[in-house]
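note to self: dont lose this again. the chain is below, predicted strucutre after it. 361 aa total, dont forget to put it in the shared folder this time
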Amino acid sequence: MPEPVLDVKYSWAESPTAGTHAGTVTVSAGDPEKPVVVLLHGNGGNSDHMAAPDRSPGENYDFRSSLPPTRTIGWRSYPGVGVWSFELDPTKTVRGWQPVLNQNGFRTVNYSQVDPDGLLARPVLELTGIVRALVAALPDAHFAFLAHSRGGLLLRKFLKDTANDPAIKGRVAFAITLHSPHGGSELATVANAVNTAVASLRSTFGSFVDTALGWLTDIVNSPSYQELRVGSPFLVSLAQGEAPVPGVAYHTFGGTSPLLTRIRSWVYTVSSAIPQWHLPPFHHRITCIEVPVASPILNSLPNLTPEITEAEGDILVADVRAHLSFSLQHTDGLNHAEALWDSGLEAQVLRILGASANVWG
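---
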């Protein structure tokens, strides 16, 4: 019999003398023989990242789709020459981790972290309060953690801080991170160069570039992202004395594709500039091409860091820095956002969790 939906109240405090924060998380229905999967979103995110990534963060561009066919505009009195318009690839339908795990019988917990754009100190305390409440409410359950991006660092800090907590010890079975900057991200140190490169694209192709890259500039310029830079005090402290928690299977995934979307241009066909025996004399038709040199985003940006270099990074995290030495390491050909919905990655994670893959293509 599947376990029913369960609401679990939790609390946490910033210090012994500080006020208590309280909240409720929901454990979805599922198979009690399988671990409960706690989902942890990344920097600047919310629960939609792990449940409905088409809403947030978006970026689900269908850059592998065929270009649309030539279109007829109609008869005009002037010749059709040059560029008609620019656009990005259309978006595609995607589904997040929570519905895929639920479909495969796993109970899940998904929540929006406190301070998603701030430092990790408070999210760690919050997660500790949530897990203690879950352990108390589900005394026979074991837990798996599936973390994206900064969520992987949140998970590491939580596991390090609670390694000897008698309430939690022995209850965690899996720690799986997706494109997490375990070794930091160089983008935090080259934020100005990223801003300049994006501004150059914007000046050429217009404000729609912000639709594709606004989130990137927001992230690399946020104070919280400085905590994730290579060699930051937080990462140095986290690594000091860190050891795998006995009984926990660690898996880390890194990506190697900085391809986010193509810049597509509708341009006039040659025949649009040739007068015909007709009034008006010019028959305008446009065809869609990928803009040379500038497309695709982000492959067109300078190789400032491995994070945005083809075959080395996923836009935000370099593959080489997405792994822990004591983890089983996996590399996929995905960008940072694709790790939130890719069916091939879902199948791999389901196999790790002991489920036969039942994913949505």
